[in-house]
Amino acid sequence: MWEICKGEITFAEVEQNYDELMRPTYAWMKLLNGNNRLVKCLMYFVFKNAKGRCDVFGDYNMQVDPYDKNKPLTYHFTTCPVAEFAREHGFTDILPALCNVDYSIMDAMHVRLIRKQTLGFADNCDYMMVGDKDPLVKEHPRYRDEKGYIRNK
Q1: pLDDT at residue 43, as a whole number
Q2: Is 102 within 8 Å of 115 (Cβ atoms)?
Q3: Alpha-helical regions (H) of 1-153
Q4: Is residue 101 within 8 Å of residue 18, measured between CB atoms?
Q5: Under 8 Å CB-to-CB from 68, ≥6 apart: which residues?
């Protein structure tokens, strides 16, 4: 779509359309509250399960850090088929729109994603998730970099 519509559609429109396309898949997550310790434990289970599926399919290389009830949930990817496809086919300019939806997904659960880098421009994609009331949210404000990625300081 990006190749065909380039010049007719803006990056912001692609980002908005992709977010709207993904919204039904995470709409139910609004029932969850990432500030709740039980939800945090459930999220860890979901990420560990996702890692197992990644290992079976070999598409993403995912590392989930050990669970600690007193620390944020963290995991990272060192391979991502979406980023690889974008690099191979010259679509790195649109990749931020695809990566940025991760923030909307987490926001739906009252979780704040703290991410400083993605595979779009670095050697891994780091995820740290905390409840939206956690003090770390203020310590790591969001910003949009020059390439269009939403990131945290």
Answers
A1: 92
A2: yes
A3: 2-5, 11-26, 37-57, 81-89, 95-108, 136-139
A4: yes
A5: none
The tokens describing 63, both together, are 């590392």
State pLDDT tens for residues 26-53.
888 888 899 999 999 999 999 999 999 9
Measure Cα distances from 137 to 24, 93, 115 in Å. Answer: 26, 28, 11
| CA separation, residue 100 to residues 45, 49, 147 (Å) | 23, 23, 12
Q: Which residue has the higher pLDDT, 3 or 123?
A: 123
Query: How is residue 38 written in tokens?
Result: 């039980």
Query: CA-to-CA distance for 6 and 24, rounded, in angstroms?
Result: 26
User: Residue 29 corresponds to which tokens in the numbers above?
Assistant: 């997550």
Structure tokens at 72: 């944020």
pTM greater than the 0.90 cutoff? no
Question: CA–CA separation, 116 vs 135, rounded Å?
Answer: 17
